[in-house]
Q: What sequence folds into this?
């Protein structure tokens, strides 16, 4: 994994010296002011920041506080490079969010050792976070991460006045598949279906997640009504193309049913259930229920605002509300 280090100091000679000391540890970038540092971080977050405590204009303490207050890159480790050695100043730096100190004049071995230590810690934490947001069986985004993405994309769509689409997907007759072939085969089926749907998506901003059990969800920012139908059909056909044998499946293979909905958060009526994130998810889920009722192995897209009434379907579809029992 390539390591990115940002050096922030208004002394060009010190920046050059530390850059030479760290050149073989990763890609080193430079900034000579706090404002320039924040611009670089916003454009491309580094793995670690080495920050001068005292600079003209925005101080190092202010830069560190700003980094910590940002939800997107607030976990970047910040090491202060400072001539201060008094306890009170170090406490202020730690309160601002620093993880360590390097005192001037800078020692090459100390600098390299502390950078390596904090980069390793950052990478370990990144791995833990990825695991917490990833479904271990399929490798897809998990329900927790998907719900956060959905809420974030809803706000973004409202701000940019763009539509937001969502697909809800069930593997047809999956309980019978597990009963017939066993749970290890069921797990392999889930992984294969998830991978097929992932490869069927064509835009980098589109996300497929394992929503629970044999159910998946796809988030489609900025999609229009024609686009959501195309994506729904692509994921349907990608799973059918796997030709996974299923004695109780349509045409003897594993298939999926796909329900979708599209909303425009900027014009949604906030007082109605349809004008919420939960409303979009409920509409997509009910469209999935209707795809099941119409015979499975098909898509159904709901473009009209409004929540559907509760209903039930004997077999693998127990309720049309997101989060219900899917098995």
A:
């Amino acid at each position: 994994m390539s390591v990115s280090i940002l050096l922030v100091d208004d002394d060009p000679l010190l920046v050059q010296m530390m850059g030479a000391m760290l050149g073989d540890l990763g890609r080193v970038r430079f900034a000579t002011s706090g404002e320039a540092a924040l611009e670089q971080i916003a454009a491309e977050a580094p793995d670690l920041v080495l920050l001068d405590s005292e600079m003209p204009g925005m101080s190092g303490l202010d830069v560190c506080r700003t980094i910590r207050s940002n939800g997107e890159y607030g976990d970047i480790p910040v090491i202060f490079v400072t001539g201060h050695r008094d306890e009170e100043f170090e406490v202020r730096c730690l309160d601002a969010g620093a993880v360590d100190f390097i005192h001037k004049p800078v020692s090459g071995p100390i600098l390299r050792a502390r950078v390596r230590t904090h980069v390793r810690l950052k990478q370990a934490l990144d791995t833990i976070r990825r695991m917490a947001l990833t479904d271990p069986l399929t490798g897809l985004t998990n329900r927790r991460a998907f719900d956060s993405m959905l809420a974030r994309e809803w706000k973004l769509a409202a701000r940019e006045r763009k539509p937001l689409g969502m697909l809800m997907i069930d593997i047809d007759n999956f309980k019978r598949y597990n009963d017939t072939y066993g749970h290890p085969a069921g797990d392999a089926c889930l992984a294969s279906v998830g991978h097929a749907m992932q490869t069927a998506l064509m835009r980098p901003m589109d996300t497929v997640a394992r929503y629970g059990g044999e159910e998946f969800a796809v988030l489609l920012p900025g999609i229009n009504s024609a686009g959501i139908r195309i994506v729904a059909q692509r994921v349907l056909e990608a799973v059918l193309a796997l030709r996974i044998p299923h004695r109780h499946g349509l045409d003897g293979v594993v298939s999926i049913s796909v329900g979708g909905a599209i909303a425009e958060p900027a014009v949604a009526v906030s007082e109605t259930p349809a004008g919420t994130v939960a409303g979009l998810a409920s509409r997509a889920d009910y469209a999935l229920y209707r795809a099941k009722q119409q015979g499975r192995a098909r898509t159904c897209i709901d473009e009209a605002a409004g929540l559907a009434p509760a209903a039930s379907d004997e077999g693998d579809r127990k309720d049309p509300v997101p989060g219900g029992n899917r098995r």
